[in-house]
Amino acid sequence: MTLLSSLLGDASQTNVRLEARDLSMGYAQTRIIEGLDLLIPSGQVSAIVGPNGCGKSTLLAGLARLHKPIAGSVLLDGKAIGSLPSREVARRLALLPQDAMAPDGLTVSELIRFGRQPHQSLLRQWSEEDQAIVDAALIAADLKELADRPLESMSGGQRQRAWIAMAIAQATPLLLLDEPTSALDLGHQIEVFELIRQLSAAGKTVVMVVHDLSSACRYADLLIAMYQGRIVASGRPEEIVTSELVEQLYGVRCTLLRDPLSGTPVITGVSRL
Amino acid sequence: MNAFSSRSLIAPPGHHLLRLGPCSLLLHRRSLLVALILGLLLIGVGSWILAAGDDALTPWKALQAAFGQGEALQVFLIQELRLPRLIAGLLSGAALGAAGCLLQTLARNRLATPGVIGIDNGATAFAVASIVAVPTSLAPSALALSGAATAAVLTFALAAGGGARGYRFIVVGIAIGALFGAATNLMLARSDMDAANAAYPWTVGSLNARPADSVLLLGIGLAVGLPLAKLLANALSLMRFSDSVAIGLGVRLQRMRLLTLALCVWLTALAVAVVGPVGLIALAAPEIARHLCNRHGVPVLNAALSGALMMILADWLGRTLLAPIEIPVGIIAAVVGGPFLLWILLRQAPRSST
Questions:
Q1: Which among B13, B24, B249 has the least Cβ separation from residue A117?
Q2: Is residue B138 part of a domain?
Q3: For the whole model, what pTM was predicted?
Q4: Mean of the pLDDT values across residues B169-179?
Q5: Other CB atoms closer than 10 Å to residue B29's CB: what's the count?
Q6: How far is residue A156 from each of residues A57, A144, B185, B331, measured CA to CA in Å?
Q7: B7 confidence band (pLDDT: 50, 70, 90)
Q8: B290-312: per-residue pLDDT in tens?
């Protein structure tokens, strides 16, 4: 954990503030998100959940400055994220998009080195610090043995860990992940979620879009439930997840249980209304 | 000693780290070696081409004469007759190689060349028009430059709605190129034999008797464009990822795309005004550079060097193969480039299956 803490670099930066104010996103005719307010709690894992098309990925894209808002704003440490130099944002906020794609033949360590790009300049292209952080990211994501393997030769879970390692190497206090486990089997999902928990324990603020409500409850400190472009509930999973909420979000009936180990809600007995 | 070992320790594999105070420069070892070899080859082949001809000299003598040393007659022969052609070939090859490398990166497609986006055809159409259709006092190369610029501006303007995304730009460019190509053919079909013959080099690309001022212009353009391309190379290497990854790493995608396209058009237009449409250099040179460097970067400089080498070799072949008849360099490039294109396409298959 000390290793991960060292990755965060400047500790004063860990208190980063990301918020959306009256945020509307989408297209002129159809708005996907309408007048949304949100403050991401620092140092915690927030999970955005909701049915398909509810705007959760759009919200994440807005928070990560991938798309411009039609109205309202996203503020990073109080400043409109679009007005900040993109490289400066990249030193505070790392993103793992759903459609992450690398050029053919790129190896794991080469990929992770690209994470240092926002910290480099024309006359400062590499340093001991860069190397130390890349090495630490390899260890944190448990990829030391796979460092020289090309990405396309690896399994989905390993590849996803490599992308997260690149985001770790960016050494940002904030990490945004869009469905980081969507194509992974159960074992690999756990692998990725545990890594995210470790990063959070080391002080990173994490925001992720998660498809599976039970995993979101299990691994997130805070749930942000979205429906039709609005936040309908947010708070600690055990406090806000009720069968009514599940019914509102997904239009299904269910029984809620408590996970005997973690005490978090588990959704079972799902049936159509 | 200690400083040295830590220096070699922290450089990523395959790289050299140059450090000077707070500055550090990361150099890809193999790219450096390739650049060195290509540079030496250029000097060697260049002086050898200078020396070869009806009045044969030794390459060393030719090189000396190029710098004004030796017998007056030889100096005249080299400096006035052979050197301008060699320089025109070197510069236009370098510009086309670099431009091809830029566009291929931008389009994320190894088959994209500046010729694809209509610049070549615009230049050809204007140059041909000045010879066969519209009487004008302007030299064909000046018109070729304005033709290339016209095609580029048209493509930019019509593709602007798409936010200068590489894909839309290329599709519009293909259409513009087709229009200019058709115009060229129409003009040639309606002109008499002599005029068509005079226009012929502009339709295939040739280095025969290029005007000195357009070569000078190309030299200046290259001196500005190449360093700029090298400066962009780091951000360009991020553009090979998906858009969202590149933005996440701090690339201002929109601005980078426009800048890269503008640079590519700039280099191509100046080169085409000198040599005409020799698009295959722009296709093959970056591929050769990537192959030699064995690396997933954006080898702009090595693409320029291999482009220059290809161009002077193709020109030399064209002059000697069927001497005294001269084959235009564009035809040689196409004859060599066609099979090369096939090789690229066929080589890809086994790679993707692994």
A1: B249
A2: yes
A3: 0.85
A4: 87
A5: 14
A6: 21, 17, 53, 48
A7: very low
A8: 888 876 678 899 999 999 999 99
Which residues of chain B have a Cβ shorter than 8 Å from any chain A Cβ? 6, 9-13, 15, 17, 22-26, 231, 234, 237-238, 240-242, 244-245, 247-252, 296, 351
Helices and strands in chain A, H and E counts: 10, 12
Average pLDDT score over residue span B249-273? 87
| Contact across the interface for B248 and A94, Cβ inside 8 Å | yes
Could you tell me the pLDDT band of residue A166, with boundaries at 50, 70 and 90?
very high
Burial A67-90 (b: 16+ CB within 10 A, else e): eebbebbbbbeeeebeebebbebb
Tokens 């016209």 locate to B150
- Tell me the shortest Cα–Cα distance from B248 to chain A, in angstroms: 6
Which residues of chain B does A114 touch, with a Cβ-Cβ cutoff of 8 Å?
237-238, 241, 249
Q: Is residue B9 part of a domain?
A: no
Q: What is the CATH number of the domain that holds B44?
A: 1.10.3470.10
Tokens of A231: 């936040």
Asked whether the beta carbons of residue A113 and residue B296 sit closer than 8 angstroms, the reply is: no
Q: How far apart are CA B107 and CA B111, in angstroms?
A: 9
What interface predicted TM-score (ipTM) does this complex get?
0.89
User: Between chains, do B24 and A87 touch, taking CB under 8 Å as contact?
Assistant: no
Domain count, chain B: 1
- Nearest residue of B to residue A86, measured between CA atoms: B250
**Alpha-carbon distance B200 to B275, whole Å?**
12
Here the tokens at position A218 are 């299990």
- Please, which pLDDT band fits residue B352 given cuts at 50, 70 and 90? very low
Residue B19 belongs to some domain of the structure: no
Range picked from A108-112, B129-133, B151-155, B341-345 for highest mean pLDDT: A108-112
Which pLDDT score is estimated for B255? 86
Q: Could you tell me the residue range of the domain that residue B197 belongs to?
A: 27-348
d(CA A160, CA A168): 12
Contact A123 B25 (CB under 8 A): yes
Q: Does residue B58 fall inside a structural domain? A: yes
B250 and A127 in contact by Cβ < 8 A? no
